[in-house]
Amino acid sequence: MIRLFVGLELPAKLRERLAGLGAGIEGVRWVDEENLHLTLRFIGEVDEAQAEDIVEALDRVQVPPFRIVLDGLGTFGAGVRLRAVWVAVQPSPPLEALHRKIERAVVRAGLPAEGRRFVPHVTLARLGSVAAREKLGPFIAYNAGFRSRPIRVSSFTLFQSFLTGEGADYVAVERFDLALEEA
Ligand code: 2AM
């Protein structure tokens, strides 16, 4: 079985900047610079045949290229239930449209529909220890004004996730180019 998800890769310079935000804060499980991404659809464990069906379905997804802007910080859980800190995405109808089409594609390939609302985000950190929670409050306040330059989205990626003792490693399995509109 292979563990898959669909997401957007981020430009190296942006990943470097994002990874730098948390430098020096310990006790938090920061996402490694090379693993920073935006999840469009978590798939989970599938077998080879299912993976092939998914690739085939994703290959038919088409939207014109577009831009997104990362803007502000958000969290999953709050207070004593804080689980993750992430960078938010400015509302983007084209990103929503891409997400919808990918959702339809994976359902067409035989996967159950995702019941949860799509909250586009780039996870920066997961809570390592309870003590770390206190450090994240000031971190969030300090970086609340984070904003990226517009990021051009001209492809999306099927990632394989390898779970390791220290977290996960993500490897791009397949990239799907978005079509340019005809003039
Ligand atoms: P996260 O960043 O909010 O933790 C690879 O694991 C990606 O898929 C991560 O970005 C993660 O989102 C997301 N993910 C992991 N498990 C998931 C699940 N059970 N449901 C939805 N998304 C999940």
Condensed summary:
By secondary structure, the protein is α+β, with helices and mostly antiparallel strands. 27% of the residues lie in helices and 37% in strands.
Keywords:
183 residues; Cyclic Phosphodiesterase, Chain: A; 4 helices; alpha+beta
> What's the gyration radius in Å?
17 Å
The percentage of residues in β strands lies in: 35-45%
CA-CA gap between termini: 43 Å
Number of helices: 4
Would you mind describing this structure in some detail?
It is a single chain. The chain has 183 residues and is of the alpha+beta class. The chain has one domain (2-177): Cyclic Phosphodiesterase, Chain: A, CATH 3.90.1140.10. 27% of the residues lie in helices and 37% in strands. The chain has a four-stranded antiparallel beta sheet with strand order 3-1-9-10, covered by helices on one side. α2 crosses α3 (93-108). It is globular and about 45 Å long. Adenosine-2'-monophosphate is lined by residues 5, 39, 42, 84, 123, 161, 168.
Give the topology.
Layout: E1 2-9, H1 12-21, E2 28-30, E3 37-46, H2 48-59, E4 66-68, E5 70-76, E6 84-89, H3 93-108, E7 121-127, H4 132-143, E8 151-153, E9 155-164, E10 167-177
Antiparallel strand pairs: 1-3, 1-9, 2-7, 4-8, 5-6, 6-7, 9-10
The chain binds adenosine-2'-monophosphate.
Residues 5, 39, 42, 84, 123, 161, 168 line the site of adenosine-2'-monophosphate.
